[in-house]
Amino acid sequence: MRVRIINAKDTPVDPGFVQKMSEITLQDKGLAYRSPNLIKNSIQAGFFLVALGESNKILGWIEKYKIWEDWWGLSTLYVFPEYRNLGIGRGLLIPAGVKDLKNKNIFAATTNSEVQSVLEGLNFKKVVLSQLPLMVRINLLLTRYLNIKSLLKLLEVRSR
């Protein structure tokens, strides 16, 4: 299967699909919730990458976002179940985190052990949130978890 990784702003993304992406982030326990508006804004800013298959079908996506100064985040790495274990997730991570954000501090939070393994294979290091600079933690809270659904989902994950 031929897969292309492109910036989502360079291809038409159906508003209904943006809604579907948001619903997936709410339902998938390994993803932080992203509202349709946040996804739309991220696409328009050029911070969303998609993996496209035949007929430009979206197979997966990843979001990158600026946190503070030279700190960036990677979020919502998702590959549809029928396309997993084909290297698509890694294919999204490499341009999003390794190439685009070279020489930057990159933060990626996940409870998904498969994603953790891929990140470690790309030389990401595990850190405790408290090890991050205070301004990074504050900006993460204000920009990524201010939405009540995001905060509730985060608290649900932490209480497990």
Automatic annotation (TrEMBL):
Matching CDD domains? NAT_SF
Name under which the protein is recorded = N-acetyltransferase domain-containing protein
PROSITE patterns reported for this sequence:
GNAT
The species this protein was found in:
Candidatus Woykebacteria bacterium GWB1_45_5
Pfam family of the protein (one): Acetyltransf_1
Q: Which molecular function terms from Gene Ontology are attached? A: acyltransferase activity, transferring groups other than amino-acyl groups
Classification of source organism: Bacteria, Candidatus Woykeibacteriota
Domain N-acetyltransferase, residue spans: 1-147
